[in-house]
Amino acid sequence: MKKIKWLIWVLVLVAAGVGIWYWKFREEKTTIVLNTEKPHYGTIANTVTATGTLQPVDTVAVGSQVSGTITKVLVDFNSTVKKGQLLAQLDKVLLQAQVDQINANLQQAKSNLVYQQSNYERQSNLYKVGAIAKAELETALYQYNAAKDNVNSVAAQLSSAKRNLSFTNIYSPIDGTVLSRNVSEGQTVASSFNTPTLFSIARDLTNMQVQASVDEADIGNVGKGQRVIFTVDAFPEDTFSGRVKEIRLQPSTSANVVSYTTLIDAPNSDKRLKPGMTASIFIYTKEVEHALLVSASAFNFEPDTVLRKIYKVERHSGSPPDRRDTTRHKRDTSVRTTGQPSYVWVKKDSALILHHVMTGMTNETQREILSGLSTEDEVVTGYETLKGKAKAKSTSPFMPQRPGGRGGGGGGSGGGTRPPR
């Protein structure tokens, strides 16, 4: 009986050991899952990012050419004005007094001219009959000519004084909107050394422009006429569009960073954009529409020993791409017309086949395929290993990867921020 009990305990311990080994130490079933995608048509673009400030296309600073005290201000901020409209008036008393004084001097000069003319004619008649010497006639002629010149001089002074008097009325030089008003009634304006700015008027707020600052590393790719989109903090959900209008050659340096001012047209028919708003800008330096695209991670994939045990690997399919092949889909003429040779792996049934391709543009997340693939191909971008319910990547996170090289296992997609469309 004791031997039977002992045998039973041995069997129980063996069964327990087998159970523990089965649940704790047995190898879990491993499943290899390929990550694939089919090439698709879309738009690919390279962009340059920048920040800028919105401003009116044409702004005029209205000032005063004479000094005086402001007696009337007839417009305010945001007022819509027409060309020739009266904006403000200065005190006219002193300037009007100058006009009156010079006018009186002119009348006196004219009276003197009449007298000197009469005296000259009388002396001329006396000289003809020999009653006076020639010297007296020449003296009368000199006084007569001096009187005429004096009339012309005083008349010029009167014209200048009247002109200065007219400057006491400040008129709008353009049709537009008053952006700023820098004076109030009773304020004294002094224009001795420089012309003070009384008003700032924007010509047309329905046609704005963005003054962007583009880094020297990016300015070489920016050109006139390129498409631009931008956002402003006031309307974070909306995207506004424009075109590069001008790249100014005068550089600016801040913290050892050289940048160039780039002007961008910004239509503003609804007047939502306001002067001074900060814009986040994307300049499309190169753009291709209806391009055949594949993820950039497909070009980093290379079958390793794990996949070679499962799939048949064929390293050659077709012939290497012809470097002279310039066939492209609908594309922008600013983009270069030659491609670069490369290759990707395509899954077909239980085989992985190497495909030679010609690539065009890349934006770090996708590449343009010029030839070598179709929308029916299954391009491998990487793989994953599944163990039971756990999911693990095939490559170690501590393994260094070469940028743009061919890593083993599953390559990840490239980074980069995609601008709003």
TrEMBL record:
One of its GO terms (molecular function) is efflux transmembrane transporter activity. Residues 99-168 form the Multidrug resistance protein MdtA-like alpha-helical hairpin domain. Keywords: Membrane, Transmembrane, Transmembrane helix. Residues 404-421 have a biased composition (Gly residues). Coiled coil: none annotated. InterPro entries: Beta-barrel_YknX (IPR058636), MdtA-like_BSH (IPR058625), MdtA-like_HH (IPR058624), RND_pump_MFP (IPR006143). Residues 208-281 form the YknX-like beta-barrel domain. Residues 314-339, 386-421 are annotated as: Disordered. The keyword Lipid metabolism does not apply. Residues 314-325 have a biased composition (Basic and acidic residues). One of its GO terms (cellular component) is efflux pump complex. It holds the Pfam family HH_MFP_RND. Residues 59-196 form the Multidrug resistance protein MdtA-like barrel-sandwich hybrid domain. The keyword Magnesium does not apply. NCBIfam families: RND_mfp. PANTHER family: MULTIDRUG RESISTANCE PROTEIN MDTA, SLR1207 PROTEIN. This is Efflux RND transporter periplasmic adaptor subunit.
